[in-house]
Amino acid sequence: MGALAEWLAGTQASLAIQDMLWIVPTVQTVHILAMSVVMSSMFMIGLRILNLAGGYHTMTEAARRFLPWMWWALAVNLITGLVLIIGEPWRTLNNPTFWLKMALLAVAVAAAAGFERTLRRDAGFWERRPGDRKTVRVLVATNFLLWCCVIVAGRWIAYTDVPPP
Ligand code: HEM
Question: How far apart (Å, rounded) are the C-alpha atoms in residues 77 and 65?
Fold first, then answer.
């Protein structure tokens, strides 16, 4: 990864991001705003599954309302994340915490896609008071925890010692 980081740091795009000091803080701000949209839509769906909020919506209606926000916000996270990687490649590509975050994120996104697929296949599964089932409660709690771990890892990237370029 060191060679890729070194090559990226020498590209025009990276040099431009490094020179214009307003880009990284602005992009990080958009990254954090998008992350809050991901988290709130995930929380709302989780609370609906547990029958703690939004009970006047069917599960399909709740998913139709919140999932698009999550997928679009994740796309913004991907684009802003790529800009941050191009701008400061040595800070991320050689950073074990960054790769931990990406691994956690892959699991969290796969879980969200899996949920959407099960809902499409059998909306009834999620309508028969899912919150009453212990497994579902454990799944929802684990999913909350997973997304929180993505955030902690994201924040910890800056505090992980990475060998200088
Ligand atoms: C979709 C792909 C994503 C990529 C490629 C990505 C990449 C990055 C990068 C490169 C940083 C900057 C790290 C640094 O230099 O300190 C960062 C920061 C961060 N990311 Fe992501 N990220 C993604 C998605 C997410 C998601 C979905 C969340 C939360 C749900 C998240 C939460 C954070 C947090 C909390 C920070 C620290 C922000 C700060 O303190 O300024 N990221 N991310």
Answer: 20
